[in-house]
């Protein structure tokens, strides 16, 4: 069992739909990251959070430390949101800020 | 300002050859990470440098892999006697504790071992 698990693995939505991607982890963490990987491979950090909720534009990330679970929401989805979304955690037991990654969720938003 | 840069962007090499991949982190970032992403798989941690501390090499898959970093600047990842299973995108990221542990990723080097 991976330390970080994401669901779903693949998600197809119509433009305008509300999207939720889930991430569950099994270790104690000091921070959780949501990353976006574009089709060309570039990775962009969307959020880093250790508690509560963060919002940036149409993106919202939440985390529940007790339940070891985080969600990434996209409101009013758009085809340009199509990408792989990756959840990554910084474990309490790991050195420095190295991350452990989920397998990613491939999101496709159709016009 | 400039982001993390990596070179080359693509590298095709024959099995058994050595390759060297370069990462230029964002100026001032004390932390530098190497990750690997095999086709269709998630990212794997390889090695982590933080300032002048001893690097965390726990993610290196074999002794064919090594990495160096000059001070708080450029890093090179070397793979000796490459194997086909080394084919992957190698990603570098940098960050600074003063910036809340955000990691800024480079564009990656796509390595193909034939």
Properties at a glance:
heterodimer, A: 111 residues, mainly beta, six-stranded mixed beta sheet, five-stranded antiparallel beta sheet, 11 strands, 0% helix, 59% strand, globular, B: 114 residues, four-stranded antiparallel beta sheet, 10 strands, 46% strand
Describe the structure.
Chain A has no helices and 11 strands. By secondary structure, chain A is an all-beta fold. In chain A, strands 2, 4, 5, 9, 10 and 11 form a 6-stranded mixed sheet that branches. Chain A has a 5-stranded antiparallel sheet with strand order 1-3-8-7-6, with no helix packed on it. The model of chain A has no long low-confidence stretch (mean pLDDT 92). Chain B has strands at residues 5-7, 10-13, 19-24, 31-37, 43-50, 65-69, 75-79, 88-95, 104-105, 109-113. The mean pLDDT of chain B is 91. The chains are: A mainly beta (111), B mainly beta (114). The interface between A and B is medium-sized, with 22 and 27 residues.
Please summarize the sheet with the most strands of chain B: 6 strands, mixed
Shape, principal axes of CA atoms of chain B? globular
- Please summarize the sheet with the most strands of chain A: 6 strands, mixed
Give the total of beta strands of chain A: 11
Q: How far do the termini of chain B sit from each other?
A: 37 Å
Instruction: Please count the helical segments of chain B.
Output: 0
- Compute the number of helices of chain A: 0
Poorly predicted ranges of chain B (pLDDT <50, ≥5 residues)?
none
Which percent range describes the beta-strand content of chain A? over 45%
Largest interface: A-B, 22 and 27 residues
Quaternary organisation: heterodimer
Structural class of chain B: mainly beta
Distance between the termini of chain A: 36 Å
Q: Into which percent range does the helicity of residues of chain B fall?
A: under 10%
How much of the sequence of chain B is in beta strands?
over 45%
């Amino acid at each position: 069992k991976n330390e970080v698990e994401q669901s779903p693995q693949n998600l197809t939505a119509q433009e305008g739909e509300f999207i939720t991607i889930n991430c569950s982890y099994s270790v104690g963490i000091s921070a959780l990251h949501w990353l976006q990987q574009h089709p060309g491979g570039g990775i962009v950090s969307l959020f880093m959070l250790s508690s509560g909720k963060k919002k940036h534009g149409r993106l919202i990330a939440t985390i529940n430390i007790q339940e070891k679970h985080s969600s990434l929401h996209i409101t009013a989805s758009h085809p340009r949101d199509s990408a792989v979304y990756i959840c990554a955690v910084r474990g309490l037991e790991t050195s420095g800020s190295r991350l452990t990654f989920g397998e990613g969720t491939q999101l496709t938003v159709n016009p | 300002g400039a982001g993390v840069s990596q070179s080359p962007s693509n590298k095709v090499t024959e099995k058994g050859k050595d390759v060297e991949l370069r990462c230029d982190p964002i100026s001032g970032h004390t932390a530098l990470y190497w990750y690997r992403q095999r086709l269709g798989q998630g990212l794997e941690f390889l090695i982590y440098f933080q300032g002048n501390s001893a690097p965390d090499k726990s993610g290196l898959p074999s002794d064919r892999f090594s990495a160096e970093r000059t001070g708080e600047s450029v890093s090179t990842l070397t793979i000796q006697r490459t194997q086909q299973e080394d084919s992957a995108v190698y990603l570098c990221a940098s960050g600074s504790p003063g910036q809340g542990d955000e990691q800024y990723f480079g564009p990656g080097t796509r390595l193909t071992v034939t």
